[in-house]
Amino acid sequence: METKKKNDKKRLRNLRRFTRLGVQILFFALFPSAYASAFAGVKYMFIQIGAHQLIELTPFVAILIALCAYTFVFGRFFCGYACAFGSLGDWIFGIHKAISGRRTKRPLQIPEKIMDWLSMLKYLVLAAVILLCILQKFDRTQGMSPWDAFSQIRAGQVGSLSGYVIGCLILGLTLIGMFFSERFFCRVLCPMGAVFTLLPVLPQLTLRRDREQCIHGCSGCTRACPAGVELPDAASWDTPGECLQCHKCAGVCPRGNISCKGRRIRGDELWLTALRVLILGALFVWLGV
Amino acid sequence: MKNLIIKISCMALILVMFAEYNAVTATRLANEKVEQVKAEQAAQTAGSGTETADSDKGSGGGSAAGAGYKDGTYVGSAQGYGGTVSVEVTIENGSITKIEPIAHGGEDAAYWDMAVAVIPQIIESQGADADTVSGATFSSTGIINAVIEALQQAM
Asked: CA-nearest residue of chain B to A36?
């Protein structure tokens, strides 16, 4: 009886993992520029401010607002399931895990304390970009963005890469970082991620854990988490800004302690994932991502 | 609960600041426009009326003053972001009167919508003397280059 339950649990968990992979591939193929478009909205707003012009509702600004509103309700589901760059990082890190063969422990990782400090870098990146935009000097960074270099490669424009030498270099370093450390770019460098961590998020659909039920000294969730998040207690109204809504924690918890506020919803149910995917996809189609 | 309330309040404050900024800027731009119109009227009544028949704003940007293009419709193409961009340029009485995009090379709709903003600038400058759209550089460059190719047929 016990083994059947365990097998069922395992099968369900694998199903959820494959679903996530499928969704990531879907968004990578259909909406690869979502991240860039939203961040272009951020840059546009501050360029306008610096030029003393009106902030108009351009498509980029619309995508930015929509994505932030979506994140307010659903948490950073975009980061965990739909961002092309994040998916790329997951797949590269997956290759690393497969090669190193150790699946239970995280291979070769940067110590969490150092990662905590490094995670502050993305706020610096955001601040620097905003400052450059206000000072009307952002076009000087043309060709330096690893994201732009990635977009060029993805669009097949290999010929124009000569204008993106620095961008390609940073992209290469980022990919190496993502190979060795899960979601390295997202935790350490992503300015859009910095924006997301600063947003308020409703707790009704984001994850927390029932501390009273935890096995003493377990922290399986934190160890499985790509961002090293320590989930808040079940009664908390807080949502950790670093949580990417990837649901690996829920898949790993031996006691099934992980759920959303209100405890009715676990947070990684397939119907909920489908709902979130549909809403996000519809938003993207509507906004022309 | 406290943290969530603080974050929501900060977000609300930031949104209010952006709205205020826009309101103030709109007022300032409107006032500047009024001043500009007044200045133009004053210049006109002072008797210096140089009206060119074909331009709707008397501003002196760009080239092609009297570089009479041949009348007709021309199609030009160039490389955009993800593929080839084609435009149809209409010349009447030696000037560009219409630019119509007829193919966009696989650009995402959001980028394309931003890039076509370059078209009014091209018409106003009567040449390819327009700034690319920041954030949609490749798409807008594609449109500009496509227009250049069309104009070369009209020389």
From this structure: B135
Residue with tokens 């550089």: B137
> Each residue of A142-186: pLDDT tens digit?
888 888 888 888 877 777 778 888 999 999 999 999 998 999 999
> pTM for the full model?
0.80
> Interface pTM (ipTM) of the complex?
0.83
Query: How far B49 CA sits from the closest chain A CA (Å)?
Result: 31
B1 and A199: CB-CB below 8 Å?
Answer: no
Is A203's Cβ below 8 Å from some Cβ in B? Answer: yes
Structure tokens at A181: 């450390």
CB contact under 8 A, B110 and A289: yes
